[in-house]
Amino acid sequence: MGAFQLGIGPVQALACGPAQLRLTVDGERIRRLELLLGHAHRGVVGLARGRDPQAAAVLVGRIDARAAVAHQCAFARAVEAASALAVPPGTEALRRAMTELEQLAVHLHHLGRVSRCAGLHGAAGRAALLREAVLVACAEAFGHRLMLDAVAPGGLARLPDPAGLAALPAVLDRLRNGLPALRRALLDDPAAVRRLGGGTPEPWTRCRTRLERIGHGLGLARGLLAEAGEPVAIRPASASTAPAKETGTAEEIGTAESAGGTVWHWVRLEAGLVAALHVHDPVLPAWSMLDELARGLAVEELPLLCASLGLSSSGADQ
Amino acid sequence: MSGTAARARRHPPLSMLHLQGGGCGGCGLEIEALLADGRLDAVGLLLVEAPRHADLLLVSGTVGRNLLDAVLATWTAMAEPKWLVAAGACALDGGPFRDGYAVSGGIDQHLPVSLVIPGCPPTPDAVLAGLRLLLDALRATPDLSPPPPPARPALPPAALPHRRAGGDSSGG
Fold it and tell me: For a surface tag, which of A41, A81, A198, B73 has the fewest beta carbons within 10 Å of its beta carbon?
């Protein structure tokens, strides 16, 4: 018997955004997985070129909603380094706290999706509740649930709400209290271990890693929020002065952490405008692992694997 | 809320296909949040994966030149009567990417849109409010056959008004 080929996507392809896959299957086992990305391409770099960095910041925040703060921060840091803009230490601590909050929400999102794929509805509900608590708190503190348009070169795009900022540690406490039950439902429950570790151990081990990162991130976020201090120290971007090197040309790199890994932006400024930009999103290497990890799996186990990898075509296609 | 729930019980659930285009995926995250907490079921909407099973097509994200054929094919594969909902700034007009070479404008340039849910991204509450509005309109007609005229309801604004990040420097 020869192998069969099976096409998936680009619409409704494994809930990772638009992507096209061609599976070569032997019986029900995947022998090979070919990937065609690019359906989510918007031309972000092309749109950013020639823009004022403040206007380009709105655009790079929308490269991937799962790493919105990370992209905004990486871009802002690159621009700040290239134009010698100084950011107050308190503001920098707050920006790092925001990337930690984003990572908490995204890890919870992926855990929820993995739970739903595996039919673990109790765990999915717990993860969704905790994620919602983070997003509501972020909306109150930073004006947007996903913290879009929150960071700008030079500091923050707008002043955070003091009451919202003061409420963040209580949300971190709520997460810390809710985490053990989620951990038990995903890692210790025998049915969960069987479903998550059935075809390949990858989903289970990734859930464990995400839970560990959430625990670690809670501590980091708490420390950074304390370090950030009072929001009066934050300088809104509108008040930032013109870049020191406005007339010249400068190139710099900025990095930030997202739930999937490190995001980095290389930017070249000419006369204060973005002349060139390169964006690295860590989801692209994650896509390239898919073929290797999917080999030998049954076709119906593929959605769970994709959910556990946290794949998205937004960050890969840009 | 209770009125809608009661109506949802009287009517068979409608099925909806969520087509995620390009864009940042924020709309997809917010729509998935509705799925996770069961509020989509509560208003009588069932999420399906095949266009042939779908009554509603919910489009979020940019419809790029790369994706347009697939979107049109999905719409063609859906059985009549069918309705299209555009959620978020990208589906509406390309949003912050509407001037990009890869983006082919809003979905309304290609297909008849019955409902627009604005926001970048719309909050889960805004998505739900919009879908409920459409469902109520559909259920008010005894035989779901005639597609309603395009509706552009005034919905509660999303957390942040959509900033025009396109080529004009006037809106940013």
Answer: B73
